[in-house]
Amino acid sequence: MTTTLEPAADRLRQQKAWNWYDWANSAFYTTVLSVMFAPYMITVAGKAAGCVDADETCKRTVDVLGLHLASGSLPSYLTSFATISSAFVLPVVGSFVDRSAHKKWHMAAYAWAGALVGGLLFFLAGDHWQLGAVAVVVSSILAGCSLVSYYAILVDISTEDERDRASSRGWAWGYLGGGLLLALNLVLFLGHDTFGLSKSISVRISLLSAAVWWAAFTVIPFVRLRDYAPSAVVPEPGGVLRRSFGQLFATLRDLPNYPMTLTFLLAYLFYNDGIQTVIYAASTYGEKQLGFGTSVLIATILLIQFVAFGGALFFGRLAQTYGAYRSILWGTVAWMVIVVAALALPRKNVVLFVLVAIAIGLVMGGTQALSRSFFSLLIPRGREGEYFALYGAAERGTSWFGTLLFGVVFQITGSYRPAILALIVFFVLGAFFLLRLDPERGIREAGNEVPVTLPAG
């Protein structure tokens, strides 16, 4: 079992092994959560609700634990329930991770359990939506749990100066892997007649393929990563469960002692919510406001995935020169420009729409990758699981703010243009808190070394 950092060449091998988990789990997020699950669930739930044509918008309801929910809204409710539940589960998981000498086992166990449950989506058929509803909620929560361990491992296998490069490479691999499987699944879905398949079975195979991909590629980091002994663990009496909850409460009490860490969490809460909402709203805006058909939107989704691969690597290089903090701040400003540009897009102008999509891909990959690595510098040693759990909880517990604002503004104005512009407030607030953050102070307060790639202020 390793207790100290290895030589640089060994660390690089560990980082490359670590990157494979981004490749593995991204397929679940792209194929299942971003593209395939929601429209198919609406169709299946619509049949259960008695809709004549379940592929059309249906306002009939299904019964969920005594609640009558519109079949067309069911995927949104399920996703919201999973994200809010994760906000409560992840901090407890993080407390276990910090005390474990087997972080890779935690990561792999949650991943394989999530993939097993996610594979049950293959049986989402006919009008039997209940199994699919449970499967997507549980697999989403397990995916979040696996990421807590995965992010915590980054601190064990890299120095402060290596974090941005390692994280950026991981995000790039994630976008490439997720985009590759999504492209294959879209070929299967769009050409289902050519392959002698029904539309339904092509979607079910695609959902299953994401689970298989997730489970199979998790084997690589599991086999190649080493175990690392926990360090600087907060002493707590009692058994494992009591010690873990004790550490959680100690961390929450101690968080105000790290004001820069808390400031970054607030900044991330806002600008990441803006990012997620732009991604969520892009297809709706393109179809309903700009008049593009399905083929253009699908091509654009794939384009963003593959451009984000280059965007993550580009921002990683940018951070090597200007530091992660400045690069993230510039990224939030770029998001403001993108939102304003989207507002001004004319209807059915494919060229301008694609240019904005390219900009989204470039900035999306970079800001997400550097947020992970920069936050790792603000975490006190030995509390990586706890703090990355709070990082995930902050993201998941508030990720509905942007979609709520988008929907409310549309309802008031009747247009998606002011709705998309309203999202700029999240990037403005994110930049506001970033500007109030002293990165060097925050890193030193956490007891970490200030990277040479982080210029002052």
Automatic annotation (TrEMBL):
Q: How does it sit in the membrane?
A: Multi-pass membrane protein
Question: Any transmembrane segments, and where?
Answer: 20-42, 77-97, 109-125, 131-153, 173-191, 203-223, 291-315, 327-345, 351-375, 387-410, 416-435
Entry GO terms, CC: plasma membrane
Q: Which InterPro entries match?
A: Atg22-like, ATG22/LtaA_families, MFS_dom, MFS_trans_sf
In terms of domain of life, where is this protein from? Bacteria
Where does the protein principally reside? membrane
* Name this polypeptide is given: MFS transporter
